[in-house]
Amino acid sequence: MATAGKVIKCKAAVAWEPNKPLVIEEIEVAPPQANEIRIKVVATGVCHTDLYHLFEGMHKDGFPAVLGHEGAGIVESVGPGVTEFQPGDKVIPLFISQCGECRFCKSPKTNQCEKGWASDRADVMAAVDSRFTCKGKKVLQFMGTSTFSEYTVIDQISVAKIDPAAPLDKVCLLGCGICTGYGAAVNTAKVEPGSTCAVFGLGAVGLAAVMGCKAAGAKRIIAVDINPEKYEKAKVFGATDFVNPKDHSKPISEVLSEMTDGGVDYSLECVGNVEVMRSALESCVKGWGVSVIVGWTELEDFSARPVQLIAGRTWKGSVFGGFKGRDAVLQMVKDYLDKKVMVDEFITHNMTLDQVNDAIELMKHGKCIRTVLTVSPQ
Ligand code: NAD
Ligand code: ZN
């Protein structure tokens, strides 16, 4: 490619500071260094974790940054030492790396690879290293990915090569939300056939958890959200019941306990709220109930009475659905192409990168499931 080895000037949405709209700027993207890949981003979803960084976490060392971590694109050029990728390959950037060599990658029990940009300064959600500059300033790469940019540079251990038949404006959602929720049900909760589940929060992550519960054979899936507009969508993915906590004066855990003769077998928290995490745990049946925290927050401690766990419940957490990034995304793209998992059904809006602030507003106000932004027209 004519651009290989050169700095590329392109458009990106820059988050200069917390709690402010993103600004479309021209940025410079340096060529990939050893073991890195420069990618032309074709499409990206907007996930609540982008909003978390901007409006909730607001970590001062995490700005300026280019947000976006749910994208798909095409390899533009590769750095020295990259042998598995070539210009033209279709790829999905990953915020969970898979080096294949560290003790975590070698264990089948976890997807917590210890290499890759995203695991460096995980609290800040942006590594010190970055290939972006704007107006002479270094701009950080959120979660090691930064898909709100026409071009990005990513460590090869954080990139999944996918089937060239995959439509990038759809499968970009497999870069975060769908794999996260689906895997939390299938891999982390390990939902069993015939079981009863409750999913708290019906954004893309929660709806994917509903889809995972159904795929695992759950017979009853109770969808819980304070926004009743989400229920119709939840039915599409397999929800059998809907509960709005606002419709009840008693705690939601009591409501669910009454509905299920003592509590659900599995609950998944897909909101990112410590009170909801507690409710999800307390909604599980004693003896064997499993509750999984998927929603993201680092702002507060959570709490629960020890007897909840002493009585036999298990409380777990899940990042990227417990999936090992590169292997899982390749497989999930295949499963989508084979019509075994839904993706298109999560997309409620299509916009362009210039409209990223509108997409953020839609999510803030609960008006979308996923907005897909076209970043570079193909
Ligand atoms: P979203 O904003 O689209 O959906 C959140 C849903 O929760 C909304 O439907 C909202 O109405 C609902 N909600 C809010 N308060 C509630 C309450 N008290 N009770 C019940 N429902 C409530 O977000 P999303 O993109 O689906 O992400 C969901 C969460 O998952 C976020 O916290 C996000 O940061 C997190 N996340 C975690 C991972 C991970 O790897 N663990 C990955 C991606 C996203
Ligand atoms: Zn995400």
Automatic annotation (TrEMBL):
Entry-linked CDD domains? alcohol_DH_class_III
Cofactors (names): Zn(2+)
| EC number assigned by the record | 1.1.1.1, 1.1.1.284
Which superkingdom does the taxonomy of this entry point to? Eukaryota
In this record, what's one Pfam family? ADH_N
Recorded hits in Gene3D superfamilies, A to Z, give: Medium-chain alcohol dehydrogenases, catalytic domain, NAD(P)-binding Rossmann-like Domain
Q: Which GO terms describe its molecular function?
A: alcohol dehydrogenase (NAD+) activity; S-(hydroxymethyl)glutathione dehydrogenase [NAD(P)+] activity; zinc ion binding
Query: How would you classify this enzyme at the top EC level?
Result: oxidoreductase
Keywords, comma-separated and alphabetical: Metal-binding, NAD, Oxidoreductase, Zinc
Q: Name the catalysed reactions.
A: a secondary alcohol + NAD(+) = a ketone + NADH + H(+); S-(hydroxymethyl)glutathione + NADP(+) = S-formylglutathione + NADPH + H(+); a primary alcohol + NAD(+) = an aldehyde + NADH + H(+); S-(hydroxymethyl)glutathione + NAD(+) = S-formylglutathione + NADH + H(+)
Q: Which GO terms describe its biological process?
A: formaldehyde catabolic process
Give every Enoyl reductase (ER) domain span. Answer: 17-373
GO cellular component terms? cytosol
Q: Which family does it belong to?
A: Belongs to the zinc-containing alcohol dehydrogenase family. Class-III subfamily.
Q: What is this protein called?
A: S-(hydroxymethyl)glutathione dehydrogenase
Q: Which organism is it from?
A: Epinephelus bruneus
